[in-house]
């Protein structure tokens, strides 16, 4: 269950009341990191992808997953990483990437999520920064049924690339609409890796980009500031409706 604790900023000594957010496990139960009552909040001086995630085990089904590490933004400008108790299992129990989990049997390259009807409502993540947009997208991909969400090996021409079994996704937090070239580059990457291509944009898409995505079968989503991805073309509608469960492997 979510916990509430007092967090003190080491820079200005302000006190913050912090409650850990809960995210849905694939079984539908809420999961939240346990706060380390004896630990101190630490300022974030630079970003490392692996440090932005914390291992947590679901108390209901026992699955171990990686979830966004709790943080607090102080009025003095410092971002504080809240101390939490991580799951103590070895790396062999998971793949160490956002969205990884322990399954009863080894997975093949075919994605096998829970049945779409069993999916709980997607919990929105308010978007204030580019990092929030990446977090919201990673959680949405997990909600759709993709496993092992991680930073993509190949960096896209713009935005941030994410990858998982069966998909490559591009997160574009720019204030300009995504262009035709952006969509075509994502499609080429997806085609090379024989996976689905999914685009998430904060500012929407140029008309020619949308038309090209429809022709190529690239799913387009718009991220509103509440952090809820909204499908804007037919491939995205199909993906949002069925997740990965009813899609061809």
Low-pLDDT regions: 89-117, 245-249
Q: What is the overall number of helices?
A: 4
How many domains comprise the coordinates?
Answer: 2
Which class of secondary structure composition applies to the elements?
alpha+beta
- What is the string of helix and strand elements? EEEEEEEEEEEHEEEHEHEEH
The count of strands amounts to 17
Arrangement of strands in the largest sheet: 12-13-14-15-16-17
**What overall geometry do the principal axes of the alpha carbons give?**
globular
Measured by DSSP, the beta-strand proportion falls in: 25-35%
Radius of gyration based on Cα positions? 18 Å
Model description:
The chain has helices at residues 130-144, 180-193, 207-216, 234-242; strands at 4-8, 15-19, 23-24, 30-31, 34-35, 42-43, 53-57, 64-68, 71-73, 79-81, 84-85, 150-151, 160-164, 167-172, 196-201, 219-223, 229-231. The chain has 249 residues and is α+β, with helices and mostly antiparallel strands. It folds into 2 domains: 4-106, no CATH class; 118-242, Trna Endonuclease, Chain: A, domain 1, CATH 3.40.1350. The strands form 6 sheets. The chain has a 6-stranded mixed sheet, with helices on both faces. It is globular, with a radius of gyration of 18 Å.
């Amino acid at each position: 269950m979510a916990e509430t604790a007092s967090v003190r900023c080491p820079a200005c000594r302000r006190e913050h009341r912090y409650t850990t957010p809960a995210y849905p496990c694939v079984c539908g139960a809420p999961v939240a990191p346990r706060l380390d009552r004896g630990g101190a909040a630490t300022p974030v001086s630079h970003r490392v992808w692996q440090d932005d995630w914390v291992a947590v085990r679901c108390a209901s089904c026992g699955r171990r997953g990686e979830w966004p590490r709790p943080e607090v933004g102080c009025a003095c400008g410092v971002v504080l990483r809240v101390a939490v108790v991580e799951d103590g299992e070895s790396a062999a129990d998971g793949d160490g990437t956002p969205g990884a989990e322990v399954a009863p049997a080894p997975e093949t390259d075919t994605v096998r999520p829970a049945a779409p009807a069993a999916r709980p409502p997607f919990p929105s993540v308010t978007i204030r920064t580019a990092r929030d947009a990446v977090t919201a997208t990673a959680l949405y991909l997990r909600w759709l049924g993709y496993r092992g969400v991680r930073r993509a090996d190949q960096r896209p021409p713009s935005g941030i690339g994410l990858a998982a079994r069966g998909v490559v996704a591009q997160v574009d937090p720019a204030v300009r609409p995504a262009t035709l070239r952006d969509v075509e580059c994502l499609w080429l990457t997806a085609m090379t890796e024989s996976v689905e291509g999914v685009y998430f944009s904060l500012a929407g898409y140029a008309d020619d980009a949308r038309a090209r995505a429809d022709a190529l079968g690239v799913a387009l989503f718009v991220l509103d500031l509440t952090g809820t991805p909204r499908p804007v073309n037919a491939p995205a509608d199909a993906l949002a409706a069925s997740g990965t469960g009813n899609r061809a492997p």
